[in-house]
Specification:
This protein is mostly helical. The chain contains four helices and no strands. Helix 1 packs antiparallel against helix 2, helix 1 runs antiparallel to helix 4 and helix 2 packs antiparallel against helix 3. The model has no long low-confidence stretch (mean pLDDT about 95).
Length: about 120
Amino acid sequence: MHNYKELKVWQKGRELVKFIYELTSIFPKDETYSLTSQIRRAVISIPSNIAEGSGHFSEKQFNRFLEIAYASSCELDTQIILSYDLNFITEEKLKMSTNKIDEIQKMIAGLIKSLQKKDID
């Protein structure tokens, strides 16, 4: 069991949620219940799954929730690219978003690897 509030990856996830909410606040109003909602659900899933997984007593369960968080980051990345394709965001915002998503993906992957290494040791 881990204290998720002390995990840098969870803290970065919170920052990403705030960034994405601000980014999607400029989306067309007719997207509120479609792409905007989907993006926000995906980004919220990242720190939420990290927190939920950390509450389990087994590293295997924690790993499973980290994998879900990683998958949500992939979903989010795709949706941000689609937002750019639909001209909802600029290329600059696309790059900022994908850099932040890449960073959290690397952090999640690193944590997964460290948990897997513990299982081997």
